[in-house]
Predict the 3D structure of the following.
Amino acid sequence: MKELSLNILDLAQNSLTAGSTWVMIDLEETEDTLRITLKDNGCGMSEEMVRNVTDPFCTTRKTRKVGLGIPFFQLAAEQTGGSLTLSSIPASVSPDSHGTVISGLFYKNHLDFTPLGDVVSTLCTLIQGAGDVDIIFSHKLPGGEISLDTREIKEVLGGIPLCEPEVLVWIRDNLTEQYDEVGQNH
Amino acid sequence: MKSLEELAAIREKMASRLALRENAGEIRIVVGMATCGISAGARPVLNTFVEEVANQGLTGKAVVTQTGCIGICQFEPVVEVFEPGKEKVTYVKMNPEKARKVVEQHIKNGNPVAEYTIGSNQ
């Protein structure tokens, strides 16, 4: 993956597949670190699956026997001296409170740090394909915070679907302006 | 700032238009968005389809959707076009420029772009 924002898009697809009704994407940046966390309320994974999921030969896909999403993300974090953490509560164990949290810590000044890239495009793409699943996004930077919550947008839109092109353009412009305000050009 | 008031204005505008749109999405444009597709460049391809379908006024005719791995990872980004009564067209190794041409020639005018299909790339 050329940008970490593509890893984020890829990981978020796992949350959609897991039957989540919301996915939280949190980015936290300091001068030299970036933490990317995705949290969902999907079906979760068993302890065994959590242990195996960083293995490329472990996958839920049916067309191939390899799954590279989480291994790619882990590699991208570890090659900067950072790390991956993963925890999950399966619905079979806890019917009322289940889901998965995946988090990567990256050292931004490391030579092998992959740039975060176009987060706005990732969010637009994700929302376009997310159907009824809510996306709750926050990006904390030293200069301020960018946030977006599709639950608030849906409230204003009434029954108009988020995947309508005009709505996606509004989301893109809104996020771009928020990034401009904190002095980050994305 | 793109305000919530602007969003409300979009709602008003869309509400009347959606009511008029009866056979929405007669054509389905499906973009593969698994790890293989994303790493090969599917994100800008998908966004280009969404923008072009809107820009060309084709939202009543075609709908853009996402799917997982189609199973031919070496050909990603892969886009499938489904049209009622016609055979599925599979486009391979797509990019934003090719996507614009597919919208113009295939979606708008009904002529698949043969050179981008899997048959021409094997």
